[in-house]
Amino acid sequence: MSDYIFPPAEQPSVAVRGSSARYAVSRIFCVGRNYAAHAREMGSDPDREPPFYFSKPACALVPSGATVAYPPATKNYHYEMELVVALGAPVFKVTPEVARAAVWGYAAGLDMTRRDLQTEAKANGRPWDTAKGFDQSAIITELVRASETGPMGAGAITLAVNGVEKQRGDLADMIWNVAEIVANLSQLYHLHPGDLIYTGTPDGVGPVLPGDVITGEIAGLPNISLTIAARD
Questions:
Q1: Hey, how many other C-beta atoms are within 10 angstroms of the C-beta on 50?
Q2: Dihedral sign, CA of 130, 135, 139, 140?
Q3: How far apart are CA 74 and CA 131, in angstroms?
Q4: Measuring CA to CA, how many Å separate 147 from each of 115, 131, 150, 180?
Q5: CA 167 to CA 192: how far, in whole Å?
Q6: Distance of CA 145 to the CA centre of its chain
Q7: Among 39, 89, 141, 190, which one has the highest count of C-beta atoms within 10 angstroms of its own C-beta?
Q8: pTM above 0.85, yes or no
Q9: How many CB atoms lie within 10 A of CB 47?
Q10: How far is Cα 96 from Cα 71, in angstroms, rounded to an integer?
Q11: CA 176/CA 180 separation, integer angstroms
Q12: Across residues 160-166, what is the average pLDDT?
């Protein structure tokens, strides 16, 4: 006999390379403007101030290789290729050294964005929720354990649309590295296993249309792909 009025939603989770067990996800944090060139292309003048964050619901996760509908309420649907961090230990108000040890694994991810809604929200001083936290907006590959990848402090990160390269950067270009991001975020939240962090995107973001195929690579991680279907 259930104690719920309606059946609870399925637990969001991510596949793990080499394992049948899955990583249960509770929260998705995203870092804004963590590559200087991308910050400039979005109209900002980057410097080393503390990073800022926005979030996506865990139910927005979609596995790499999927086909998703072009989302409603936008005419400017963008890709953003990102390194994703998965935490494996609780941390709160920690140093970068402690934060580094709390990283359980990494994945490649796409932070899909309704750019026109984001632009409107920025202009009016409003939150980015409708631009960033919509259905099927967080694409992710299998997770790879940090013990297999190392610290992921450098390495190529690229994205192509229909085979044409659009983004190319290096993880070393991040303004705030993984340990610094986790340490800073831990000043704001009690972080736990199940928390994912999308760490920002290089420059070259742009729109996609129905029929387009996005592919991306980060050195040492599974390749990511996404096909855009007709408008939802």
A1: 10
A2: positive
A3: 9
A4: 36, 34, 6, 19
A5: 31
A6: 17
A7: 141
A8: yes
A9: 8
A10: 37
A11: 6
A12: 98
> How high is the pLDDT of residue 163?
98
C-alpha distance from residue 37 to each of 49, 160, 167 (Å): 15, 18, 11
Per-residue pLDDT of 114-147, as tens digits, reads 999 999 999 999 999 999 999 999 999 999 999 9
Residue 1 has pLDDT above 60, yes or no: no
Among the listed residues 68, 66, 58, the one whose alpha carbon sits nearest the alpha carbon of residue 14: 58
Q: 200 and 167 in contact (C-beta within 8 Å)?
A: no
- C-alpha 79/C-alpha 205 separation (Å) is 6
Cβ proximity of 54 and 126 under 8 Å: no
For 105, residues 6+ apart whose C-beta sits below 8 A from its C-beta are: 16, 23, 85, 86, 88, 143, 144, 145, 146, 149
Contacts of 145 (CB under 8 A, 6+ apart): 16, 17, 104, 105
Sign of CA dihedral 201, 15, 144, 180: positive
CA distance 202 to 103: 22
Domains, the chain, ordered by start: 13-231 (3.90.850.10)
Residue 163 identity (one-letter amino acid)? G
> Cα–Cα distances in Å, from 81 out to 12, 161, 202, 231?
21, 11, 7, 22
E strand or H helix at 114: strand 113-114
